[in-house]
Automatic annotation (TrEMBL):
Name of the molecule in the record: Predicted oxidoreductase
Alphabetical list of Pfam families matching this protein: Aldo_ket_red
Residue ranges of domain NADP-dependent oxidoreductase in the record: 48-308
InterPro entries from the UniProt entry: AKR2_Oxidoreductase, NAD(P)_OxRdtase_dom_sf, NADP_OxRdtase_dom
PANTHER family assigned: D-THREO-ALDOSE 1-DEHYDROGENASE, NADP-DEPENDENT OXIDOREDUCTASE DOMAIN-CONTAINING PROTEIN
Signal peptide: none
């Protein structure tokens, strides 16, 4: 099976940081603080300009992995037009995801923003759409938000399609979500095609508030998969910190901002291959990048574990965050 050429990232200025485009590919998302982060007039043109500015900054600062999805509004289109305008960015690795269909019609107040469907028919449609935009720049294609009950884990017809994609040179992975991420990851490790493991990449939510997938991600890493961490900032909940919180205390000790400390704590995990910034502004990209130089000792890391919440409580809170 094809693997993502992450060895190319080893020589990148920031080999373990990536940029996720969920926050800049559509007018509404669930990150906190979007009213201040994004222009009030979120037209397609305004959001394209913002996405390009964030990509410009990320590339200039050394980030070489960019992550999109079919459900991120026009993120793939914005990324494709940025790549067309930047031939020097041939060293960038591109990942995208399928399995959710964007349904909001570019409305921030839509009742439903995306619809999940992990069927082979949806894969057939969405891989064609992704290929039409990203062509042979696509390095990684992941099933979006797999949970233990996802039919994608047992659909042999779908597995055969994904194996053909891998044979064509595109790595196949999955992202996970929900309180049972560890169960989904372990189930994915057992999926094989012709005796070979199908998935070579797993992308999961992991942060100081929601570390429950950590042991399973370590197992995936030990099995040879590349681990990508998403939502390391807990959808903006770790961007700031109460003055008396462990996050604020460690930030003060290190001279770093809370967001950089939160990202640095994830970067310290030996199994974390790439950690995504979900920045919506150029300033946030710049601040997030500082995580690469934040040194955290064992005592500080231990103190930060106090921020962890039970996984069910964390995901209930996340589900209540408004799209804005």
């Amino acid at each position: 099976m094809a693997t993502v050429p992450f060895e190319r990232l080893v020589t990148a200025p920031l080999p373990r940081l990536g940029l996720g485009l969920a926050a800049v590919g559509r007018p509404a998302y669930i990150d906190l603080g979007r009213a201040a982060d994004l222009p009030a007039d979120r037209t397609v043109e305004a959001m394209r300009d913002r996405a390009h500015a964030v990509l410009d900054t990320a590339y200039a600062l050394g980030i070489r992995y960019f992550d999109a999805a079919r459900s991120y509004g026009l993120a793939e289109e914005f990324l494709a037009s940025w790549l067309d305008a930047h031939p020097e960015a041939a060293d960038v690795l591109i990942g995208s995801k399928w399995g959710y269909t964007y349904t909001a019609g570019w409305r921030a107040d839509a009742e439903v923003h995306e619809v999940k469907d992990h069927s082979a028919a949806t894969y057939d449609r969405q891989i064609a759409e992704t290929r039409a935009l990203l062509g042979d720049r696509l390095d990684l294609y992941q099933i979006h938000s797999v949970t233990p009950d996802s039919p994608a884990l047992a659909d042999r017809d779908l597995h055969a399609r994904l194996a053909r994609l891998a044979a064509d040179g595109v790595a196949v992975g999955l992202s996970t979500s929900g309180p049972l991420q560890a169960e989904a990851i372990r189930a994915a490790l057992k999926v094989t095609v012709e005796g070979r493991r199908l998935f070579t990449v797993v992308q999961a939510t992991y942060n100081l508030m929601e570390p429950s997938a950590g042991p399973a991600l370590a197992e995936a890493h030990d099995a040879g998969l590349t681990v990508i961490v998403k939502e390391a900032m807990a959808n903006g909940r770790l961007a700031t910190a109460d003055p008396d919180s462990p996050l604020a205390e460690v930030a003060a000790q290190t001279g770093a901002t809370p967001d950089a400390v939160a990202l640095a704590a994830v970067l310290r995990r030996p199994w974390a291959g790439v950690v995504l910034s979900g920045a919506a502004t150029t300033g946030q990209v710049t601040a997030n990048v500082r995580a690469a130089s934040v040194g955290l000792d064992a005592e500080q890391l231990a103190r930060l574990t106090a921020l962890a919440e039970p996984a069910p409580a964390y995901w209930r809170h996340r589900a209540e965050l408004p799209w804005s």
